[in-house]
Amino acid sequence: MDQPTLTYDTLGFGEFDDFPETSEPVWILGKEFNALTEKEDILSHVTSRLWFTYRKNFPPIGGTGPTSDTGWGCMLRCGQMILGEALVRRHLGRDWRWVRSQSQREDYIGILNAFLDKKDGYYSLHQIAQMGVGEGKSIGQWYGPNTVAQVLKKLAVFDSWSRLAVHVAMDNTVVIEEIKRLCMPWLDYGGAACVDLQGGMSERNGCLEGACALAEEETALWNPLLLLIPLRLGLSDINEAYIETLKQCFQLPQSLGVIGGKPNSAHYFIGYVGEELIYLDPHTTQPAVEPCEDSQVPDDTYHCQHPPCRMHICEIDPSIAVLSHTRAGLPMFELIDCQPSHFACSVDVLNLNPDFSDSDRLERFFDSEDEEFEILSL
């Protein structure tokens, strides 16, 4: 990097407070815990989440680029964490728990390998950084959450094992028609089958794919959906009317959490207790990891084994995204059947083709220089 950066090291300078002794419920990614009687379960649940942090001494990005992401890669690591949670749900299930030194399942190893810091990992830092060049971000430049979302959406196309359909909602609106087109691409608008069974290519996440083309027996399936909804819930501070709705996000069993931050300070929010948000912090620099000869992955550093960090909910910026509705607060986005006529959107955008005009428009709004904190959620 040609510019100095200011960052901090969570393990080097942070203090880790235990969960407060409170009768208020602890909600983490759709599960409720009692802080007085289930502290061990809380820590086990948090530790089982994949924890991606700064790394050093990995192969140079692009062959001649950085060998560490300290100071610039925190939002990329947060994107990896929220996608990693999606893959754990997809392949291991909601109730899977990580146990230190336990023999690893093949699917778990497959997930970890997708994120190792090497050029051929589906979701490695190398892939995200290089794909970001097409988004106008040079290697070593800090990303906003929308850039990470758009890059992960593009990379997911090549992951034929997981077959995730990734959609970034726009204009505070989730259009069901767009979701159906993405998750059931073999259907036309009227619901009739339109898959090419003669070997033609299909589309997923707006990109053509050949190797992963749908087989005839797969056309009745719904592709697993990864839905990201960028929102803004106030001007300079979060509107208190949205706070209860934001909390409801972490109570949904489908919730994968919230990512967000400002340069050198991005976090992965996974739950709340009382008026505090619970989050995993990527600001720890650890050595890069290589698989063992037996293909096992030394994975201790990929799980946070200390109590997670907390911050007061009012400290977050109003640029957030959640998937929730509650009578106790204002709705944070709109859910509609079809795209309304006032959406100034071309057919190419509706078909989710990868020209990224939607990315450019969102980037100008969410990644402006005036934005101090940005959050993106599923």
From TrEMBL:
It catalyses: [protein]-C-terminal L-amino acid-glycyl-phosphatidylserine + H2O = [protein]-C-terminal L-amino acid-glycine + a 1,2-diacyl-sn-glycero-3-phospho-L-serine; [protein]-C-terminal L-amino acid-glycyl-phosphatidylethanolamide + H2O = [protein]-C-terminal L-amino acid-glycine + a 1,2-diacyl-sn-glycero-3-phosphoethanolamine. InterPro entries: ATG4_LIR, Papain-like_cys_pep_sf, Peptidase_C54, Peptidase_C54_cat. One of its GO terms (cellular component) is cytoplasmic vesicle. Pfam families: ATG4_LIR, Peptidase_C54. Keywords: Autophagy, Cytoplasm, Cytoplasmic vesicle, Endoplasmic reticulum, Hydrolase, Mitochondrion, Protease, Protein transport, Thiol protease, Transport, Ubl conjugation pathway. Belongs to the peptidase C54 family. Cysteine protease that plays a key role in autophagy by mediating both proteolytic activation and delipidation of ATG8 family proteins. This is Cysteine protease. The gene is atg4b.
